[in-house]
């Protein structure tokens, strides 16, 4: 195939980014806006050796999954990739995506995957599914070719602004807010930011809506320390019903990162409040908060179910944001610890605990991969019954996973917004003593290719453990978990009795207790081989450690 060549194809598959995949002349083509099941005519726009990119010219026969997009800008706008696909088919697309990742990256057996169908959105009052769900929008401001101030969304893979007018994923009030800002800028001659020249003032407008409280928050991200006539804008915005917070965020960097560090509050409070279930949460402009409140309740419901709490457990909620999951679980747990990197979010988390009169939740500020290992080093004897992780797209740092394995919680609940890194991390955990019990995708981002997944991992019991370890021997894998366990026992013994014990002694005591895990590891091959025997005082100390770790 060559550039500009016209081709005809039937779309047989979809890429993870939502492009249609078809074949023509033995060549694979990725075609934006083409849908699985379509027969199309297209033009090659980029030709590589074995694959290329095509442009959709004409739909010759539409896919049975095709629907009319609600938004007229859905094709140029980079926000939605799947609006032309029926909602049920979108859910199937997402289930397939999670399955593919778990099988291809995670190495799980497809037939044995405990994967449930995606939990989708119910129809809204107008009968539509998957629209008007977002409680947050970040709208870039710029200039059109003819010099007007425009706002909208970036086109896919570029930074040219598509004037979407109204976005059908967000709240209708967004438009009024954005128009208020635009006309204010025009009136006072305030220029939007030009990222090529790194000049101009207004970069983005961030809007948050509290679904249950009706509160609104507006934050202008500006390339400067202040906004001329900012009070006037704040006054106009505060006239909008529900407006609770108007602020500036200062971002003078040449960067794609939207928010900067410094905040300037212009009117109202520094946060809005929203509710999930019976709990109230304070949310600052800089804090993370799930964007789809309807589905968040379902997601957190699954987290609670998977955590299997009885009221006594110690729970860690890593990457806790403003403490939403922590506080959701606190009512059924003994003690909850949350860890979060963004200082404003940690402040919100502490305020939220107080706001809801929850006293068994404590929050640490810092990176999870630093905080947890540090804490565990300082408290090696402390138990963690359940660990919840909800990392950003890049998944968990290995350092964190290693510490989690050493802490050996009975359950790990992994909440993920990227099933590829999820699969990578599950593989790591399942190679070291955990089994994947349930995988529940939840559609938090209808019309887009994104999917949230919550997984339950449980620690294998001693008898299951033996099987797994043997299999690992056969596969000639070094079991990270088994090392960790020996390390843990050694550390515990040293700490509690001052004795140093070897892996061999631990293996001998484990065998005596009937819990030896690796039959041909660390043990004499024959009865009469000359191996040192574990002295009684060390045996007693090891037994105590095994008891502490609930292995006997
Ligand atoms: N569980 C929360 C937030 C999940 S989003 C909720 O459901 O609302 C992921 C969070 O991880 C964000 O708040 C982000 O600020 C935080 N984060 C990102 N990297 C981190 C790290 N290395 N350590 C701790 N928190 C981190």
Structure explained in plain terms:
The protein is of the alpha/beta class and 552 residues long. Helices cover 30% and strands 25% of the residues. The strands form 5 sheets. It has a 7-stranded mixed β-sheet with strand order 18-17-16-19-20-22-21, with helices on both faces. The chain has a 6-stranded mixed β-sheet with strand order 7-6-10-11-12-13, covered by helices on one side. Strands 1-2-3-5-4 form a 5-stranded mixed β-barrel. A hairpin with a 6-residue loop joins strand 8 and strand 9 (161-162). Helix 1 runs parallel beside helix 9. Bound molecules: S-adenosyl-L-homocysteine. S-adenosyl-L-homocysteine (SAH) is lined by residues 288-290, 319-321, 324-325, 339-342, 345, 367-369, 390, 392.
What's this, in brief?
The chain has helices at residues 87-104, 173-188, 230-238, 293-307, 324-330, 343-355, 368-378, 398-407, 419-430, 462-474, 480-497, 503-512, 536-548, and strands at residues 6-14, 20-24, 27-31, 39-47, 51-61, 136-143, 149-151, 153-154, 161-162, 202-209, 216-222, 243-250, 262-268, 272-276, 279-283, 314-318, 335-340, 361-365, 386-389, 411-416, 434-442, 452-459. By secondary structure, it is α/β, with parallel strands linked by helices. A seven-stranded mixed beta sheet has the order 18-17-16-19-20-22-21, with helices on both faces.
């Amino acid at each position: 195939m060559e550039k500009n060549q016209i081709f005809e194809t039937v779309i047989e598959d979809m890429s993870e980014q939502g492009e249609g995949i078809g074949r023509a002349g033995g060549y694979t083509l990725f075609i934006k806006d083409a849908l699985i099941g379509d027969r199309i005519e297209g033009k090659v726009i980029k030709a590589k050796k074995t694959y290329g990119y095509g442009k959709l010219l004409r739909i010759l026969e539409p896919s049975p999954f095709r629907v009319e997009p609600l938004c007229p800008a859905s094709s140029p706008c980079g926000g939605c990739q799947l609006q032309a696909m029926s909602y049920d088919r979108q859910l199937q697309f997402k289930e397939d995506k999670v399955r593919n990742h778990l099988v291809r990256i995670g190495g799980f057996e497809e037939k044995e995957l405990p994967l449930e169908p995606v939990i989708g959105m119910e129809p809204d009052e107008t009968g539509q599914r998957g629209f008007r769900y977002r409680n947050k929008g970040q709208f870039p401001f710029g200039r059109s070719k003819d010099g007007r101030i425009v706002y909208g969304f970036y086109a896919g893979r570029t930074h040219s602004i598509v004037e979407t007018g109204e976005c059908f994923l967000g709240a209708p009030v967004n438009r009024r807010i954005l128009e208020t800002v635009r006309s204010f800028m025009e009136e006072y001659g305030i220029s939007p930011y030009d990222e090529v020249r790194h000049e101009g003032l207004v970069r983005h407008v961030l809007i948050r809506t509290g679904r249950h409280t009706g509160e609104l928050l507006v934050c202008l991200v500006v390339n400067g320390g202040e906004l001329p006539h900012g009070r006037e804008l704040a006054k106009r915005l505060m006239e909008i019903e529900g407006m609770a917070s108007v602020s500036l965020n200062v971002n003078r960097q040449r960067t794609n990162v939207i928010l900067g560090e410094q905040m300037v509050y212009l009117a109202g409070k520094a946060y809005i409040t929203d509710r999930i279930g019976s709990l109230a949460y304070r949310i600052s402009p800089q804090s993370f908060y799930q964007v789809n409140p309807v589905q968040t309740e379902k997601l957190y419901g699954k987290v609670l179910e998977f955590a299997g709490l009885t009221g006594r457990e110690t729970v860690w909620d890593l990457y806790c944001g403003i403490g939403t999951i922590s506080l959701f679980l606190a009512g059924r747990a003994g003690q909850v610890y949350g860890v979060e990197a963004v200082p404003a979010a940690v402040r919100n988390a502490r305020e939220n605990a107080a706001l809801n009169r929850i006293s068994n939740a404590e929050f640490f500020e810092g990176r999870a991969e630093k905080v947890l290992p540090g804490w565990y080093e300082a408290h090696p004897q402390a138990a963690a019954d359940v660990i919840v992780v909800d990392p950003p797209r890049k998944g968990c740092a290995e350092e964190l996973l290693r510490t989690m394995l050493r802490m050996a919680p009975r359950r790990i609940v992994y909440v993920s917004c990227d099933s590829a890194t999820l699969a990578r991390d599950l593989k790591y955990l399942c190679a070291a003593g955990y089994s994947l019990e349930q995988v529940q995708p939840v559609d938090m981002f209808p019309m887009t290719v994104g999917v949230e997944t919550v997984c339950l991992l449980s620690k294998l019991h001693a008898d299951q453990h033996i099987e797994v370890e043997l299999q690992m021997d056969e596969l000639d894998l070094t079991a990270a978990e088994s090392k960790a366990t020996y390390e843990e026992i050694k550390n515990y013994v040293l700490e509690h009795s001052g004795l140093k014990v070897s892996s061999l002694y631990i293996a001998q005591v484990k065998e005596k207790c009937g819990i030896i895990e690796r039959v041909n590891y660390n043990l004499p091959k024959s009865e009469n081989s000359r191996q040192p025997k574990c002295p009684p005082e060390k045996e007693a100390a090891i037994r105590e450690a095994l008891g502490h770790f609930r292995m006997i």
